[in-house]
Amino acid sequence: AGSRARAVSVRNEISYVMVKPDGVQRGLVGEIIGRFERKGFKLRALKLYSTPKEVAEEHYKDLSSKPFYKDLVQYILSGPVVAMVWEGDGVVASARKLIGATNPLASEPGTIRGDLAIEVGRNVIHGSDSPDNGERETALWFPEGLVKWDQTLEPWLKE
Ligand code: GDP
Ligand code: MG
């Protein structure tokens, strides 16, 4: 903490992370949240959510021209999701590493998708792909805002 210079400067960011309906149905919520908690990131928002169609379509609008777009929106609407926002230095890229490659068969073992999924159309989790999208997706999924709190173990996580 504090303003001391660090060897590598990494920005504090937020990432929108979501356990998709297959992850909820398969009972993977605790497993997935646990990985982010154990890493040390700070949870800023969390809800079990029955996604409105407009939110799902807005979330994936950049993929609207893809042949799988309709199935993708249907997949995301097929049951409740667990929507979360995690904060931390470099959390966006780090979360993507924890999550693994989009296609679970190409995801490294040790990653969430690498350990827990086999198909791209059932890849259990979403994570923002850039800090800007972390902000944008957070505003879309949590218009009610985030929870402000002090993480008391911070001195044990950050020099
Ligand atoms: P992500 O950022 O790793 O989630 O991947 P993308 O942003 O490229 O795609 C968003 C989501 O669309 C993925 O997580 C998959 O659920 C789905 N998706 C991506 N590519 C394909 C595909 O080729 N086929 C199908 N069925 N779904 C896909
Ligand atoms: Mg993406």
UniProtKB/TrEMBL annotation:
Pfam families: NDK. It is an enzyme of class 2 (transferase). SUPFAM superfamilies: Nucleoside diphosphate kinase, NDK. The active site is at 126 (pros-phosphohistidine intermediate). One of its GO terms (molecular function) is ATP binding. Gene3D superfamilies: Nucleoside diphosphate kinase-like domain. Its cofactor is Mg(2+). Belongs to the NDK family. This is Nucleoside diphosphate kinase.
